[in-house]
Amino acid sequence: MLENLRLAFRGIWTHKLRSFLTMLGIIIGIAAIIAIVSTIEGTNQQIKQNLIGSGSNTVDIQLYQNDWPCDMSYNDPPYGVPQISDDVLKDIRSLDEVKSASKYTSRQIYDGVYYMNNSMNGGYVKGVETDYFETDNLTVKKGRLFTADEVADYKKVCVIEDSVATDLLNNEDPIGKVLEIGGDSYVVVGVVATRSTFEPTINSISDYETYMQDESGVVYIPISDWPISYRYDEPENILVRAVSTDDMTAAGKKSADILNGSINPTDDTIKYEATDLLEQAQQLQQLSSSTNSMLIWIAAISLLVGGIGVMNIMLVSVTERTAEIGLKKAIGARKGKIMAQFLTEAAVLTSMGGVLGVVSGIGLAQIISIMSGTPVAISWPAAFVAVAFSMVIGIVFGILPSHQAANLNPIDALRTN
Fold this sequence. Notes:
By secondary structure, the chain is of the alpha+beta class. The chain has two domains: 2-50 and 283-415, no CATH class; 67-268, no CATH class. It is 54% helix and 17% strand. It is built from 14 helices and 13 strands. It has helices at 2-14, 16-52, 86-93, 132-135, 148-152, 162-167, 205-215, 226-229, 248-261, 277-320, 322-330, 335-372, 380-406, 410-415; strands spanning 58-65, 68-69, 98-108, 113-115, 118-119, 124-128, 140-143, 157-161, 178-181, 184-192, 218-222, 237-242, 270-274.
């Protein structure tokens, strides 16, 4: 085997330009596949991060009527849907897939939050418990969070996202400022970082309005103050933090089942549902992968062309080395030895092309990322598979030349010298 490898490298080095041109089809095919796979992996990771977030693993479980969240702004609370009890919350927190959970109330607002003459146009007001901030993995940028004692004593304090501080308070120091929320005065005690989100595709006025509402930020008040500023006995929602990203779907479904088991609405269209961002990310990833899989097949055609080139050059090599083959057979070399020599040379040739293709593919992926802004993630398993596949191409397309060499008549082969 080592002798075959030595002969293979010697043959390749002797005809350097010819060997490189032979490998070129393999290099181009492997490079294209590596670049496409890296782009797909990078896009999938970005989709997952954009929808789910960087390690937050949170699942929002809201009360729905038909396909829409129940809006308490203009509608009365639905009958048969009590507020979430401590026992129900304890059952959710005991699930294996759940790391933490916190209940909250929410209201999308348009002009219900004021600071002096400025109003907050869009965004949300949320009534939360103190553990909500940890569950949602929110980071304090200034000031502090409100305490359990402040929640228990109905203190009118609030925490705002930094986007609210920028837009509503005109970049003034927000700590200690008084906001009017739902007709009541609340003192700002802290600022948390606004969640990073991806830029959506805006195709209509409706898309624009929805985006602007989401971008306006969130104001958090103690959940005990919610009935004072808004409404008593308003149904609550749950924010669940899963143990891992892969547990998000199960955590959301099981938590929704527990919540639905605790209600008895008169309208069977009312139920708790989890916003399954993981499933949405997987659907977008599948769409992205299926779209790009066609490009991989197209790139694979060049591997076929490269394989034919290898077969052609190996047939030339057999013709050039006919006398050598005849001499080896005359002194007792078996057919298997002759075949192994030429198959090894073909495999080494394509494997070198595969390695160069992987390196070129990584470089091409980085260039694409820089020029187009498309994220890439190098898939090392794909790189190893590509090199192994290139070796297989060499063996498959080297069979015919090797078989031809092994079946040469030694007498006729020696006469060609």
